[in-house]
Task: structure prediction
Amino acid sequence: MSHPYDPSSIEAKWQKRWEEAGIYKTDLKKKAKDPYYSMVMFPYPSGDKLHVGHWYNFAPADSFVRFQRMHGKETFCPMGFDAFGLPAENYAIKTGVHPDASTRKNVETMITQLKRIGCMYDWDKMVNTSTPEYYRWTQWLFLQMYKHELAYRKEASVNWCPSCQTVLANEQAQDGTCDRCGTTVVQKPLTQWFWKIKQYAEKLLKNLDDLDWPEKTKTMQRNWIGRSEGAEVEFGIQNSEFGITVFTTRPDTLFGATYLVLAPEHPLVEKITTKEQQKAVAAYLDTVKKKTEMQRTDLTKEKTGVPTGASAINPATHEQIPVWIADYVLPTYGTGAVMGVPGHEERDYDFANTYKELRGSIRCVIAPDRKSADFSEHAYPGAEGTDQEIYEKILGGEQCWTGPGMLVNSDFLDGLSVPDAKKKITAWLEDEDAGREKITYRLRDWLVSRQRYWGAPIPIVYDPEGNPHPVPEKHLPWLLPTDVEFKPTGKSPLYYSKEFRERTEKIFGKGWTPEFDTMDTFVCSSFYYLMYLQSEGHGMKLKIENGKLKMNSIIDPHVEKSWMPVSLYIGGPEHACMHLIYARFVMMALQDFGFVSHDEPFKKLVHQGLVTHKGAKMSKSKGNVVSPDSFIDRHGSDVFRMYLMFMGPFTDGGDWNDMGIKGIDRFVARMYRLFEKKLNKGNKGVKGSKGLSAASMTKLHATIKKVGDDIAIFHFNTAISALMSLLNELEKEESIPVDALQTIAKLLAPLAPHLAEELWEMSGGTGMVIDQHWPAFDPKLLKNDTMTIVIQVNGKLRGEITVGAKTAKEEIIAMAKKEENVSKFLMEGQTKKEIYVPGKLVSFVVG
RNA sequence: GCCAUGGUGGCGGAAUGGUAUACGCGCGCGACUCAAAAUCGCGUUCCCGUAAGGGAUUGAGGGUUCAAGUCCCUCCCAUGGCACCA
Result:
């Protein structure tokens, strides 16, 4: 028999009908009764086109929204393109093709590919971040941040290849060398723009509690934000006007601080380094420039550092302690300076073991076993006269104890617990004006400057004195110039645009210059959920007229109120920290600026699993990208998307392998044949459930329940296996009533939308199956009048009995004991215990 | 290194602390066919056994429990992220 189901014609037919009927268009202005805004993370229009990973994300997301729609939700599913970014620029450097041209072409191809999935996208709402209609709002966002003092300039290091004379992305500078020429990459400081995301750290952390997001993602974000409670402590410097402020989470160990360490980048380094140490410090700074942050913080590597020659005063002990620099201290965290407590902090312990002069030494009053202490000098004869090598301040039982314990050798803190000592020393520091309570976050302010071409220009101009000024809103979009140099020159590409400079001087006056940096692409993707909702004035379809757009707010407040937050956002777990924190920050800021009514953009978040190929994430550089196109040609969209869903749990992903696609192909063909066969047998028009055996009826209703329950929790794989199992049953049936077949078409509608429409039509359904209501199951049909009880002896399965559903416990146990294979094992010893789990099992324990 | 996730037959995987291996792929045998493909039927975790049945088994080791893939501890391996790939 030839394949009865021809996906290419049938899928094209339904895609055309859906489009003609406009059933996926959403009128955002009309008040929605029960809105459901579903978003997937928009793709980057890469030259690799749409790959299997995109399908793995988009198709199940579509199935889920179809399921919602069949439950009466008014759904909105937009799609767009995250079109600015590095790959298009690198492609331009290599081939000379303008990023705008290559991006447009890729977008076009991907739209064609996307349409073949058959998703419910409302293409009228499409966005493309690289169009002036879009980046006008990226720039508007920058101006809002600037206006509200959330944007500022600061020096920050970039990866610099001295040979290529260009800034490198981290990806291009792995293992510290330039991926084009192999030269050692150095850290070069540049003045760049930052956004104050840290100001929202507490809110970003707190709001997580109420979000319907995966727990692991929330944990990762909490760790990323990295809130630490502690104190700042001021250390004076001997013979100097300067002081060093350190942040510590362990102010209780202040009496054990035997040295201070500054980050090599700390501004005080050059001010306090003594003449004798200048050479050593300069040499050290040189080596640091060549290290990545990960190399610097690697706990397994031996720590390095050099003394500055300066001494600080420990405010608690009034002792002089040396000030060093070491690269394990990062300038971006805390105050960029730490106190070294070798007795109770592992990094400090390691460091002081490398540089023994930092250990400090005092006569101890701790017992040799470190389990107890006495505050009288000679309490422990064994310890008398011994000099502890490491200052020890808390009793814990081992050197470098970081756990809880009692404070010793710490003057007025002696005898206190760690939490009490923290409180007392912090209060003391405040009294002495030598410190204060402080909360620090690991989260850093967002560096938004990029020394690249293919991004949204930062809407800032500089006056002849070099002071920044915002570009007034009426000049937006502040167009990206086209007369630029892509090849690396040591400057941002926009630097060479004559038009850009002339434009600036013409508008602002002679001697004024534009900002040459563009914005991080994460800025573009931090508010696109609002851009989909913009009901006028943007998008590929609309041109800018007279260089102006009417709206001065990013979104119509009524539309925002009814459609935000996004009901469901689906995307990869690789975005757990960066994109998903930036987007939340921007939404919060926009609420504070008064443009939106909500503070969180994504109500529910789900991560699809990662689809790998040959064990690794698909990427052009690894050459393991799999295109779905040939599979769609051969099997059609429905088979392919169901295969992806059948691979395993949606949130797991997996390694790509086309071996099993045949199984889904067979399933679809068999389902189609079942409809053909049963409908041709003259069953058309038969109503009611007559003709279906009781067992099949039960199976049908159990399947309705299972498919619904499973789709609701993204277990598409088991939903499909339930339908397969149902099909296996029904194929044995003589005849199947039409309404049972129509129920099956409805169950298939979210998972195989084209096939389901076809089957719905074949079985005489009116309208489209996607507009039908999800079928209900009859709970009465699911109840069994018998139950199977398994019998265990000492945890091992020894038999099974089938009894009536209402059989009493005692009766079941008695029956279990009589089972031949059970009684045999019960003879072996005394029955110590009998456990009955209702409806499930009997367990005997024999001694 | 740090943060997070995962590890179950030949393969993808299923399993509210209660029958481990559902469903599918693959494979084997059979039917149909001149033959093959397709389709249909039966079987299929591993070991012993004709069978009945027994034993082992969820990355490794330990623990809690009448009962552990599931909970706890230690370890191994793989993957994602680590702030300029998106």
